[in-house]
Design goal:
GO molecular function: microtubule binding; olfactory receptor binding
Subcellular location: Membrane
Main location: membrane
Radius of gyration: 57 Å
Helix content: over 70%
Oligomer: single chain
Keywords: Membrane, Receptor, Transmembrane, Transmembrane helix
Number of strands: 0
Shape: elongated
Largest sheet: none
Strand content: under 5%
Distance between the termini: 155 Å
Membrane topology: Multi-pass membrane protein
Amino acid sequence: MVAWIISRLVVLIFGTLYPAYSSYKAVKSKDIKEYVKWMMYWIIFALFTTAETFTDIFLCWFPFYYELKIAFVAWLLSPYTKGSSLLYRKFVHPTLSSKEKEIDDCLVQAKDRSYDALVHFGKRGLNVAATAAVMAASKGQGALSERLRSFSMQDLSTIRGDGAPAPSGPAPPGPGRASGKHGQPKMSRSASESAGSSVCTCCFTCRTWKDGRALLQMPLLTFVNGSH
């Protein structure tokens, strides 16, 4: 773990940041010799980074793997060994020079195919998006029309219910009918009680008035009978 951290720091500082600053100085001073030197280094470092991606997975178990990486970066940068210039002149430049035409043709074909694939998938994506938008719009319009139709039907039913006359016939049987039957005796009982109380009051008054009248007529009848 410690060796991995040290190797990453060495590659980051001495393998990337320091060469980047030196390349800036070479471009600023317009020194062709330094410019070519750092251009060769960046080509070798790009190949090293590509190889490092796979070696970190498959060769990390190798003893002194990270120490060898640190030593390799130092060898590339050292002005005494000039490792990057040596690797470029001995291996990279001859290989690229012999395969340059094939590499250029492959790059052109890959560029054309990638452009055609991008256009094809772009058209398909636009067609799918347009179809989805049309379907969503049609579904939304249908749902809106159904919603408005339901609101209009509710309004019509409300208007008809308010303007329709009350039914004159007997109510159909149902739970409300049953509740009406159960509630009818209570209403008739209360009505009869109120009616009975009024009749009883009237009869009492009538009887009192008739009894008083009879009492007044009794002496008259007695007097008449006695005179006869």
